[in-house]
Amino acid sequence: MYLTIEETAIFLSMPEHQVRRYVVEGRIKSVHDGEQYLINQTQFDLHLEQVEEVKRQIDEWRNTPIPEDIDVKDED
Q: Helix, strand, or coil here: 40?
């Protein structure tokens, strides 16, 4: 399925001008049909999956308790 720049901006929750800049720079692959740029939505599937995995890993890391240091001595 192909999206316009406007639809892609909504899909990615990004400003439209940023998506347009990424298309012009070649950071987002697109097809120009003579009137507008069309962007294949499936190219973002892997990216969005990776972002979600990184978020999950960060949450897991934040929730992992810090282990007690074996070398800490009680100095009573």
A: strand
How many domains would you assign to the chain?
1
Q: 13-53: per-residue pLDDT in tens?
A: 889 999 999 999 988 899 998 999 999 988 888 878 888 89
pLDDT on residue 74: 65
Whether residue 74 is contained in a domain is answered as no
Assess if residue 19 is contained within a domain: yes
pLDDT at 20: 93
Domain, as residue range, for 21: 2-63
Helix (H) or strand (E) holding 58: helix 45-63
d(CA 63, CA 21): 37
DSSP state of 26: T
Cβ atoms of 8 and 31 within 8 Å: the answer is: no
Considering the domain boundaries, does residue 76 fall inside one?
no
